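Case study B.
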Amino acid sequence: MSDKETTAPRRLRFEIFRFNPEDPESEPHIDFFEINERPYMTLYMALNEIRETQDSGLQFDFACRSAICGSCGMLVNGRPALGCRTLTGDLPETIRLHPLPAFKLIGDLSVDTGTWFREMAERTEAWIHEQQPFDKDAQEERMSDDIAQAIYEGDRCIECGCCVASCGVANLKPDFLAAAGLNRVARFMMDPRDKRDDADWFEVVASEQGVFGCVGMMACADVCPKELPLLEVYAYLRRRTLGTKFLAD
Amino acid sequence: MKTLTNTTNVDGARANGRRQIVYELISGGTGLVLALFMWGHVILVGSILTGERGFNWMATMLEDYYIAQPTVAAIFTLFVIHAVFAARKIPAQLAERRRMIALAKGLDRAGREKVPSRRDNSPFVPHLESMLWIWQVRTGMVILVLGSFHLILLGVDVFTPLFGEHAGIESTTSMARVAAGLWLPYAILLLCVEFHASVGLYRLVVKWGSGFLPHRRYLHRIEQFIFWVVLGLGTITLLVLAGWMSPPLEFLLTDVAS
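Model:
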């Protein structure tokens, strides 16, 4: 990087999708912007510079700028990625930005992932289901370290929606749970505190909206900014449905 | 947890779940058997590499012991079943397919550009498997047409005395056909089948085995190695069948011949 810093900065050319669904005058189109690249520049920095210096109406989402809030997912040259975590140095001089597909467009690069994730969480009832009334004096149940680690691995999901946007099935079927949804399901299936058993999960997991809707394109695992073991989650759920196939009605 | 499902009919949802498992097992299982059969097939047809003697011995043996006839019938049945159940996930509408292809192309191309400043650990690496799935659908369509033709032709060969000097597969008829022009559909079929089978096996293994198998990076390398080996063997076999190359392993049977 040190010799590259001394050479002249690259002139980056941004091709950004523009459309405001709220405005009846607005037509989907591509706008072009040019800025000078700076060392260690991220898309977060680049887009802010464009908004500050060239087009104050440009819509995009950012909050934490450190890959933990999951707001800045966008299609970067055709690949879903987090804007804050993507260095322009990894990209060619022409950078094409589109909003994430499979989600409702708010405007330009901003999409509504919240509604999708809320619906998914409600459908899968993504919270611990206790059968016993809560006893505040009782000691917390013990959990093995392996299970705790596995649950934590699934809980690292930041709900950015990159896996959903990269999924061929989720792009065509709005009710497909996709990697983010099934990762959540697997997390609660593994959790010993959750009293739902395999029979309770069966209809959700073993359906076209669940693991058997997947065609195996494997893009979810490749684009996940948190590098979650999504293929392992799918394989785990597939194998687990086999055990429950013949359960009683 | 009846509220888990969108449907109010939980029994219907459970029955549907069972059906989905069966469909998945049928499409994967038939694919597995057909892919394994294709490796055996390359070895059987590869008997031509030892010359016409070896080929005819193999064909006659398989027919005399009634191995060839039920195999052709069983493979044709599995072939049709696999087509029906594997095709259930192909989007029906052209607009849907175009959207999938556009998505897969974008994922495949991102990261291919030459960028001098790109870090070694950049997340921008091309993603192949979505495009491989698209190509599996395409090759599957080709195999459905050309494979049906091939299976019917071979069915006629092993079940009726319509062609050749005796009922069954014989080198004279097979080589004459391939040389007369069947080399072209067979070359296309060979390429499509080997691609479809090796990618399909790779996908099947990742779908069910991720977690306790080696990382798919290595599985993909194994898949590519198998693809090229079998494709190479198949190509040489086809060249010999077309008469453009003399059987390279003929020396193996010269003692018997003399």
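The mean pLDDT of chain A is 91. The remaining cases will be described in the next quarterly update.
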